Amino acid sequence: MAVRSGAALCGNRSVRARLVVRVGDAMAHIGHVDQDLCPAVVRERICGLAVAYAAACADGCTAIIETIDRANAGRNEARRLRARVLSARSLRYHMQFLHCLAYIFNNPLRHESMITTRELYYSLPIFQSPSACRQILQDVCGALKIARHNLFVEGSPKGLAIGDMSMEEANGIMHVFADHPELIVPGMTHRSTAVRTTAQMVIIVEKEAVFSRFVSGHLHHRMQAILITGKGVPDMLTRRLIRRLQDLFDLPTYGLFDYNPSGALIMATYKHGSCSSFDSQFYTCHLRYIGLFWSDLRRFQIGAHAIKELTARDRSVARSLLHDPAIAASDSVRRVISDMLENGVKSDLEALNDVEFDFVIRFVQRKIFSGEYI
Q1: I need a labelling partner for 265 at 20 to 30 A (CA). Which of 15, 141, 256, 325 fits?
Q2: Which parts of the chain span the membrane according to its record (predicted)?
Q3: pLDDT tens figures, 159-175
Q4: Among 98, 109, 37, CA closest to 65
């Protein structure tokens, strides 16, 4: 548990004891052991945290919850801490933290039934906004040293998948992806769900429109692939499913994104996780980035009407990515983003169809078969 007494730390009983719930300390301990925990272990951790908190307050101690200062913490960086001392000013935060902990213990965790963060927000009318609810949920996960899905709380589903794959949940519910796209729902990513596939690869597509084009062109049959889209910025369920497929079947995973800073940011989210989530290491994948690149636009002579100038916001996103440690560690990806800034242009995946109808499908096949990825 990330809980300890300030007096014990100081070794001096004259020093006022303090209960410290160190969310930041969880970063050093989270590993594969804490990725998937049985509900009994999670309940035990919640009870231990609640008992320690109550005992400190009963003894006249000052309760402190240290939270991650996400505004100053980038992806893969050491998280800075912001102390939340129990006082009249921070009473709302402590109340929200404990209410969230109690609700999860008595509802989704007790019944072992998934709920969405949206449901959690509406079930607890103490949060001012959904984002405030998500922040408290992250702090709860950090204090318990577990990934969020262990609390039976997931984001609202939005990702789609199709391919030679089937799943059977513990309650007998079947999901078959062979004939038409299926929404990626919480039960699919649970560790008790049996997954079967004969697919040879996973292909991630940034946008639903291009995904639909691939489905209508039967790319999943042609390539013996599982096609997945997060419809833009991917939710945790989509990223967790991709990670699970890699862990279970070691499938090579390819990614296709727009040639613009937002596309590069979405690629980085799949590959390196989200900056706003301390447990994002459980929602990453080994991604082979197949485009779209500046060299592709020149090689296939994409028309000027399909190439746009970068906006001020585009340039800001690109510069932020170049300062991201995960991006900086990859010379090839950094070069792609630098090219965007240097050339000052961007283009969508749909521009490939200017070459000829459905060329985007042949583009993906060519890239994968020739090994053109970074």
Answers
A1: 141
A2: none
A3: 999 999 999 988 888 99
A4: 98
